[in-house]
Every structure is written in C-alpha cells, then in structure tokens.
Amino acid sequence: MATNQDAEAAVLSDDMAASSPPMGIKVIVREFMRDKLALASLILLVGLLVTVFIWSFLIDQDQVTNVSLWDSYLRPMSFSEDPAREGMRFILGTDSAGRDIFGLLLIGARNSLLLGWSVTVVTSIIGIVIGILAAYYAGLIDNIIMRIIDFIMILPQLMIIIIFITIVPTYNVFTFALILIVFNWHGQARFIRGRALTVGRLDFISASKTMGTPSLVIMLREMMPNISSLIIVNLTLNFAGSIGLETGLSYLGFGLPPGTPSLGTLVAYATNPDILENRAWVWLPASTLILVLVLCINYVGRALQRAADAKQRLG
Amino acid sequence: MWKTIFRRILLMIPQMIILSILIFIIADFMPGDPFRGLVDPNLDPAQLEAQREAFGLNDPLPVRYVRWVGDALQGDFGRSFNYQQPVVAVIGGRLGNTVRLSLLSVILTYLIGLPLGILAGRYNESVLDKTVLVYNFVSFAVPIFVLALLMVWIFGYNLNWFPSRGSVSINASTPWEVWTSRLYHLILPSITTAILGTTSIIQYLRSEIIDAKVSDYVKTARSKGVPISKVYTKHIFRNASLPIASGFGFTIVGLFTGSIFIEQIFNYRGMGYLFLQSINTRDYSVIFVLVLFYGFLGLIGTLLSDLILMAVDPRIRID
C-alpha cells in the first residue's frame, strides 16, 4: 500500500514537472543541448576567453613589445637571430620590429575583448535607461528622445567617430571608448524602447499605476524583468558588433592608441602590400581570431535569442 | 502626396542647419589649420598671420559660419587646400568611381539576395534553406574589412585573378580598354560588398514568404486554381518584398556614399578613400563638405524610403 502511494506520488510529481514550463537557465541549457553547433561555439568561445585572459596575464608585455631589428619578419616556428635573445622561439613569427606575433596576438585579443565588452556594457546601460524612460513616460519625453536618436542615425557614424578621434586633445583608451559609446547608445535605446513600449501597454502595468506604485518601481521591478532576456541577447550580439567596430577602426589607424596592441593593429600590417602578399603570418592569425570570435559570439547570441522566444525554441 | 513631400522637405531644412552648425563647430576644434604644414617653414610668421587674416580664419566662429553658408548657397563650398581645387570639383572627381562601385555592388547584392531569399522561403526546412541560413548568419557576423582582406589576399595576390588595387589600369588608352579595365577592377570589391550585403534582404524575404504561405489570400488563390509558381511570383512576392522596399531609399542614396573599408583595402579612389586622405592631410574644407553631404543623403534616404513604401503599399499613409 505504501509503495503504491509512493508510486502515485512519483507519477504525480512527474506530471507536475512536465506541466510546469521550464524557466530561466534551464531553457538556455536545453537550447544549447539541442543545438550542438551552439554548444560547440560556446565551448570554443569560453576556451578562447580563458586562454587569452590567463595566458596574456602570464606573459610579460615588455618582453613581447621588446624590439629587435635582428629578428625582423622571422617566419613562424623560427628561433631568434638576436644574440641577446638567444633561444627564443617565435611560434607565429615576428613583425617588422622583431616582436613576437603570438604574444602580440594574446595581448591584442585581451585588449580588444576588454574594450569591446566595456563599450557594450556601458552603451547597453545607457540604452536601457533611456529606452525605458522614453517608453514609460511616452508623450513629449519620448518625442524629444526619438528626435535626438533620429538625428544621430542620419549622421555618417564611422566618419564622425574618426573625426572625433582626430580632434580629441588627449587621446587614450578612455577617450576612445567614450567616443564609441557616445555614437553607439542610440541603437540600443531605440531597440529597448520598442520592446518596452509593448510591455508598458500591458494590463498589469496599468493596474500597478492605478494602485499608485512609484514610477521607478514600475520601471525597475516590473518593466525591466519583462525585457531582461532581450537585454541579455542584445548584450551578446552587440559585443560582437563592438569588437568588429574597434578592430575595424584600429585597422584604419583610428583605434586603440599606439602602445596598446589590438587585434586590429595586427591586421593593419596588411595595409602594406608586401606584408599582405608575402608575410601573411603577421596579419592572418589576428584576422582569423577576429572571425572565430565574432562568429562564436554571434552564434551563442542566436541560441540565447531562440531561448528567449518560446516560439523559436528548438527544445 | 505632393503635400507630404513638400512638408518633409521643409522639415529637412532645420535638420540640415543643425547638422551644419554642429559640424562647423567640430571642424573648428580640429588641431592646426590648413596653412600649417603646407607653407614654407622659412616664411615669416607675421606674413602667415596676415594670410590667415586675409582668409578670414581669425574671425569669430559665427561670422565664419554665416560667410560659409552665404558662399555655399551660391554653390561655393570652399577650396581644398590639399588639392588646390574647389571642394566641389574634388568630390565630383571621386563621385563617379564610388557610384560605379556601389551600383555594381547593389546589383550583385540583389542578384544573390532575391533568389536565395525566395528559394529559402519557398522550400523552408530543406537542405537549401539550412545552407542559406548558415550563409546569412555568417554574412551578418563577419566584419567587412576582414573579408575584404582575405578576398584581396586569396583572389588578388595568390590566385592573381583580379587586380588588387586601384580603379583603372594605367595602360588602358582607348575608351573600350578604359571601361573594361574599370569593370575588371570593380569585380572583386563589389563581390565582397555584395556577399555581406544580402543579410537583411534574405532575412526579410524568407520570413515574409514563410508567413505568407499559410495566409488566407494564398489559400484563396490556390483554390481558384492559380498554379503554385504563379502564386509565388504574382501574389506572395509582391507582399513579401514590402520590407525590402522600405529600405530601398537608403540603397539609392547608398550609391553615393561608398564604403570606407572597401575603398581603403582595394585602394579604390572613391569618396571613402577621399575622406581618409582628407583626415590624414587635415583638409577640413573637404571633410566638412563630405560629412554634410552624407548627412544630407541620410535625410533624403529616409524620405525616399517612406515615399517608396507609400507607393508600393497603398495601405500606408505617411503624413
């Protein structure tokens, strides 16, 4: 009898589990288990991030940026020809100044990732705040914000960023990041506003307003959780975009300041036709790494996007 | 219709004024002035100062702005100090190159995007559809400068199929040779642009067609006995192409803007290349007019897109 009851309880609890919709992290895990390519991208991405961050802190930046004209443009896997650096081996060869490409690649990747992530996080925060404010208050405030965003949208973004980079009096990593943020928040704000507008029209928000809930509480505790999954998806997709923008600008010579290697500065060696044609080891690894990073991040973002939208889920 | 256009154009005027004032202020912040670096270092500083005074560079900002606007309204957009030519002539000289490149890129983009989008939508869940989705994902993610470099490296240098730099061969003499050489130089950069440009076309077409397939008007057409292929070409395609039409205004103005990355990597002397050169030589008058021109094109693009959408979709009324 007792066992029978246990079995019944087990069946009942099984039913309960089946009927309650999967939530949060469970959905994401399921989505990744269903899409093996997404899982592979995630593992590759995490592996790359861990390698880049741990290894780049282990190696000595001074040693990597150490110039030796003896070692100019050594092929991959060759040993140093400089008596002072005897026994050093360059897995990916060296650049014009005899610097180790592999070391530059690690430090450059770290810098590009850090900068891309900070820019993404700050623009997202600005975008969320402005987007939700515009959607909640609507009317005049929304109108003013949208006119400003429309105006920024018609500006030739890349050109304006380059112009600002050339006119900043003290140009360093922070001013560079600031310029990127100033000309990138509007896309986020527009996106978040659009989504927040739909949420803001729902009945429970109106009910909350009638009950006298303070506006700040409605925005933070009621509207934001409803778009939180979109925020995470957007964060991932924009991360890839920021990396693309930073490396692109660095490639053109308007990116991270000299002395702060980026993946883009390594690719920029390819502006010299001789290096582009005959010394591919200088720029090809950085280009490949950019491609792999951007593809992985985007793929993971897509999987998250599907997980956030019940209609698109695979699992 | 005409009233709408007229009103929209009137609304553009204040936007253009704000844009020009902003860019004028920014240009004023740029370090140095056009005289620095161009003049003989042995020149007497007092004389240099006199030159600056004569050109009105020492006047206060508003005075210079009003003077600039006055000249611009008469078609005088200033002189490029680097090229020793009117800015309009400098930009005009590059515009042709950019328009040729963008035109071929746009044609190729639609040649790739439309069939792939339609086929992926029509046969969705098929192998073809999955391949198109992968391609679409990659083309969305890949940064253009990385792809362009790889294309130059593979097809320009290693395989030697296409010229890797410039817009026309110096050996071309007859008009026929000049045009074929131009086309030959255009192929690689335009293919690169087109490969990455198809994302939104394919995305919109595919999802619109998938939605339309189960809609009532398609069922009606089928039950009337309209052949399936005709339903796709006549009924579904017209509806599915609406989102693409809404972006067409920007495609048209995009013909004049070109791409900084593509022109830099292929050493193609168009507008983007001119911009980078002007930044490096601090040729402010050119930079200023270029940014203003691009801003103007942005405004026109929005207007055109709305008008095109109105023209193709009678349900939409924009006022």
UniProtKB/TrEMBL annotation, chain A:
<feature type="domain" description="ABC transmembrane type-1">
    <location>
        <begin position="109"/>
        <end position="301"/>
    </location>
</feature>
<feature type="transmembrane region" description="Helical">
    <location>
        <begin position="229"/>
        <end position="254"/>
    </location>
</feature>
<keyword id="KW-0472">Membrane</keyword>
<dbReference type="GO" id="GO:0055085">
    <property type="term" value="P:transmembrane transport"/>
</dbReference>
<feature type="transmembrane region" description="Helical">
    <location>
        <begin position="114"/>
        <end position="136"/>
    </location>
</feature>
<dbReference type="InterPro" id="IPR035906">
    <property type="entry name" value="MetI-like_sf"/>
</dbReference>
<keyword id="KW-1003">Cell membrane</keyword>
<dbReference type="InterPro" id="IPR000515">
    <property type="entry name" value="MetI-like"/>
</dbReference>
<feature type="transmembrane region" description="Helical">
    <location>
        <begin position="280"/>
        <end position="301"/>
    </location>
</feature>
<dbReference type="InterPro" id="IPR050366">
    <property type="entry name" value="BP-dependent_transpt_permease"/>
</dbReference>
<comment type="similarity">
    <text>Belongs to the binding-protein-dependent transport system permease family.</text>
</comment>
<dbReference type="GO" id="GO:0005886">
    <property type="term" value="C:plasma membrane"/>
</dbReference>
<dbReference type="Pfam" id="PF00528">
    <property type="entry name" value="BPD_transp_1"/>
</dbReference>
<keyword id="KW-0812">Transmembrane</keyword>
<feature type="transmembrane region" description="Helical">
    <location>
        <begin position="37"/>
        <end position="59"/>
    </location>
</feature>
<keyword id="KW-0813">Transport</keyword>
<keyword id="KW-1133">Transmembrane helix</keyword>
<protein>
    <submittedName>
        <fullName>Peptide/nickel transport system permease protein</fullName>
    </submittedName>
</protein>
Automatic annotation (TrEMBL), chain B:
<dbReference type="InterPro" id="IPR000515">
    <property type="entry name" value="MetI-like"/>
</dbReference>
<feature type="domain" description="ABC transmembrane type-1">
    <location>
        <begin position="95"/>
        <end position="305"/>
    </location>
</feature>
<feature type="transmembrane region" description="Helical">
    <location>
        <begin position="101"/>
        <end position="120"/>
    </location>
</feature>
<dbReference type="InterPro" id="IPR035906">
    <property type="entry name" value="MetI-like_sf"/>
</dbReference>
<protein>
    <submittedName>
        <fullName>Peptide/nickel transport system permease protein</fullName>
    </submittedName>
</protein>
<feature type="transmembrane region" description="Helical">
    <location>
        <begin position="183"/>
        <end position="205"/>
    </location>
</feature>
<keyword id="KW-1003">Cell membrane</keyword>
<keyword id="KW-0813">Transport</keyword>
<dbReference type="Pfam" id="PF19300">
    <property type="entry name" value="BPD_transp_1_N"/>
</dbReference>
<feature type="transmembrane region" description="Helical">
    <location>
        <begin position="132"/>
        <end position="155"/>
    </location>
</feature>
<dbReference type="GO" id="GO:0005886">
    <property type="term" value="C:plasma membrane"/>
</dbReference>
<dbReference type="GO" id="GO:0055085">
    <property type="term" value="P:transmembrane transport"/>
</dbReference>
<keyword id="KW-0472">Membrane</keyword>
<keyword id="KW-1133">Transmembrane helix</keyword>
<comment type="similarity">
    <text>Belongs to the binding-protein-dependent transport system permease family.</text>
</comment>
<feature type="transmembrane region" description="Helical">
    <location>
        <begin position="9"/>
        <end position="27"/>
    </location>
</feature>
<dbReference type="InterPro" id="IPR045621">
    <property type="entry name" value="BPD_transp_1_N"/>
</dbReference>
<dbReference type="Pfam" id="PF00528">
    <property type="entry name" value="BPD_transp_1"/>
</dbReference>
<feature type="transmembrane region" description="Helical">
    <location>
        <begin position="244"/>
        <end position="266"/>
    </location>
</feature>
<keyword id="KW-0812">Transmembrane</keyword>
<feature type="transmembrane region" description="Helical">
    <location>
        <begin position="286"/>
        <end position="312"/>
    </location>
</feature>
